[in-house]
From TrEMBL:
The keyword Transferase applies. The keyword Glycosyltransferase applies. Its EC number is 2.4.-.-. Residues 53-167 form the Galactofuranosyltransferase GlfT2 N-terminal domain. Belongs to the glycosyltransferase 2 family. Pfam families: GlfT2_domain3, Glft2_N, Glyco_tranf_2_3. The lineage of its organism: Bacteria, Bacillati, Actinomycetota, Actinomycetes, Pseudonocardiales. This is Glycosyltransferase. Pathway: Cell wall biogenesis; cell wall polysaccharide biosynthesis. Residues 452-633 form the Galactofuranosyltransferase-2 C-terminal domain.
């Protein structure tokens, strides 16, 4: 395959996806790995050496005498609770190639994290022996996992490699097509393609990789693209298309796969272009989907890229009527240090099984049955497309599972600033999603929006207030606002925000109009105990133009409304820690935006239910194959 882009069409795609008939009668559920895909990742996320000395590489570990190592780690655990709850599998087999002397043990935990041994085998002076251990999946409904422990006594040395967790295979193994949406992140995308290419021998169920390139700095412009394309061969389908946002990029993979005659039972795995990829996630999600008792969306977890030991969240849901995504479900670990210990002194492990509301599209597998029943994603361009799709699927009988141990590293969310153009899509699409899948309590919704407006205005975030107003106005325009997939809205919101100086980021050593020596940190007081009284006081002082401080610098984590409202000008650190923003009091803008916000929220209260009905009527057409074909200009 050359470095030129090749476009998959309905006419040419039929030869790609083929169901596999397993030769061995076993399905690979996950590999036992001992080292990550990058040097920035700790090996202890895969296998932890708890005593003595051991050397670890990707697929082999060697224990020296008197050593112990445990696979009770994030990637080392087999999520037994999820397999027992959601699949018909009732036992799992662990296979390994072993040389030397020592002992292998399959260990298990329960919902409280208490460990027990379920299978073990000791060996002496073996050479390349295949060791097989079996564990039942029968005591894990509420929680718990399985893992492999290794140990040697004095004078023993043990090498273990090619660890495989397998289950009984279905009659036919449904294949998976990965689809990557990318825009101007050519190097990141190429790196992940290279990772997939290097892992192809293990990725037996990966039949296709679709890359929807929506940028002007394209992946195929890179020197290494031709080599990667050659390595992937016919599996790679590289598509250039207009920028239709994340929704348009990911949906392209669904569109291409669903157009194939052999795709009645297939999976499409969404994957972000900028993740640090653990390719075993393809194996883990595909196997789980293949053995699920009923079709379901299967998502991977997110690890924080800037802090690779941290799990973003165990599972999450959305409070639809409050417009709040990413809420951890009860008992979910959140920003958890996977190499640390909890308050009880126990290692941080997700023992309890959690039910997710939806899964982010950093890695999320969607079976073809879901698409056949509920259609394609909404043409949201960006934000909330993942949540909307999962809640629509759940209403049709397809739950979402977030599978522990199936993870990729993605940029930490709390290092992204909220005051950006994409906040428009977050707000607009959250309101649409609430209209489609919640009771749509307009009194509650109005209070949520006005509370945001008050906080933004007190914090001198006038551009962010304008962004909110535009989002609500466009929701009230009805489904027609989604006709072009969001292209016009993206351009318009950027133009609107460009009128507000505080939306621009500056170098901290070169803040326009403010001498550097005058920018002194002014720390916040604790959160007020009487917030309503303080809020009223801040509003009155803002209306009167009274300020306690003329100028000050405020750290990003202290930029609370009650603190920023004390300043005439505040130099606020951007959440990205890459610069600062200058927020300056502007009474005229504050009053004007406040009035406009009240007006548009009043309109929402009056017109909301009528507009809700419009979106519900339009949803079948908006999510149809024909609509996406029109958007793709095919």
């Amino acid at each position: 395959m050359s470095g030129e882009a090749t476009v998959t069409t309905e006419a040419t795609a039929g030869s790609l996806l083929q169901a596999h008939t397993p030769a061995s009668g076993r399905l690979l559920a996950q590999r036992g790995l001992f080292e990550g895909p990058s040097a920035v990742v700790s090996k202890d996320l895969y296998l932890e050496v708890v005593a003595g000395v051991a050397s670890r590489d990707r697929e082999t570990v060697t224990l020296e005498p008197s050593a112990k190592a445990t696979g009770n780690t994030y990637f080392g655990r087999f999520p037994a609770s999820y397999w027992q709850r959601w699949t018909a599998v009732r036992s799992v087999t662990v296979e390994a190639i072993v040389s030397g002397s020592g002992k292998l043990m399959v260990r298990a935990s329960d919902v409280a994290g208490e460990a027990r041994t379920v299978a073990a085998e000791a060996m002496t002076d073996v050479v390349q022996r295949t060791v097989t251990l079996e564990a039942k999946l029968d005591k894990f409904v509420d929680g718990g996992g399985l893992w492999l422990d290794l140990e040697t006594d004095a004078m023993e040395r043990l090498t273990v490699s090619q660890v495989r967790w397998t289950v009984d295979a279905p009659e036919e193994i449904r294949p998976t097509a990965v689809t990557i949406c990318t825009m101007n992140r050519a190097d990141d995308c190429l790196s992940n393609l290279r990772t997939l290419a290097d892992s192809l021998p293990a990725l037996e169920t990966l039949d296709a990789i679709y890359v929807a390139d929506q940028g002007n700095d394209t992946v195929d412009s890179r020197d290494g693209f031709a080599d990667v394309a050659a390595a992937l061969g016919d599996k790679l389908k590289y598509i250039k298309q207009p920028n239709l946002g994340g929704a348009g990029g990911f949906t392209r993979g669904l569109y291409e796969v669903a157009g194939q005659a052999a795709a009645e039972h297939a999976n499409v795995l969404f994957m972000d272009d900028d993740v640090l990829l653990e390719p075993d996630i393809v194996i883990r999600l595909t196997a789980f989907s293949n053995k699920a008792a009923n079709p379901m969306i299967v998502g991977g977890q997110m690890l924080n890229l800037l802090h690779p030991n941290q799990l973003h969240v165990g599972a999450e849901y959305a409070q639809l009527n409050a417009l709040q995504p990413g809420v951890p479900v009860p008992h979910s670990p959140e920003t958890a240090d996977l190499l640390g210990v909890d308050r009880r002194g126990k290692k941080v492990r997700q023992e309890r099984r959690l039910d997710a509301g939806y899964n982010g599209w950093w890695s999320c597998l969607i079976p073809s049955e879901v698409v056949q029943k509920v259609g394609y994603p909404m043409p949201f361009f960006f934000q909330w497309d993942d949540a909307e799709y999962s809640y629509r699927a759940r209403a049709a009988g397809f739950p979402t599972v977030t599978l522990p141990g199936a993870g990729v590293w993605h940029a930490d969310f709390h290092w992204k600033d909220w005051d950006e153009w994409h906040r428009y899509f977050n707000l607009r699409n959250s309101i649409i999603t609430a209209a489609l899948h919640s009771p749509f309590d307009l009194n509650l919704l109005s209070r949520v929006l006005m509370a945001q407006v008050v906080r933004y205005l007190l914090g001198m975030q006038y551009g962010l207030t304008a962004t909110l107003i535009k989002a609500v106005e466009d929701f009230l325009e009805g489904p027609e606002i989604l006709h072009d997939g969001g292209v016009a809205a993206m351009k318009e919101i950027r133009e609107i925000r460009g009128q507000y100086p505080e939306t621009k980021r500056h170098d901290p050593t070169n803040v326009p109009g403010i001498p550097s020596n005058n920018i002194i940190i002014n720390n916040t007081a604790p959160r007020p105990s009487m917030q309503r009284a303080v809020l009223l006081k801040r509003i009155v002082n803002r209306a009167l133009g009274k300020h306690r401080f003329n100028l000050g610098a405020v750290p990003a984590d202290e930029a609370h409304w009650w603190h920023i409202a004390l300043f005439k000008t505040a130099v606020v650190t951007d959440a990205s820690q890459e610069g600062v923003r200058v927020r300056s009091y502007d009474k005229e803008r504050m009053v004007d935006l406040g009035k406009r916000a009240v007006q548009v929220v009043s309109r929402l209260r009056k017109e909301g239910h009528a507009v809700q009905a419009q979106y519900k009527r339009a949803m079948p057409e908006l999510t149809s194959r024909e609509n996406w074909k029109r958007l793709y200009e095919l």
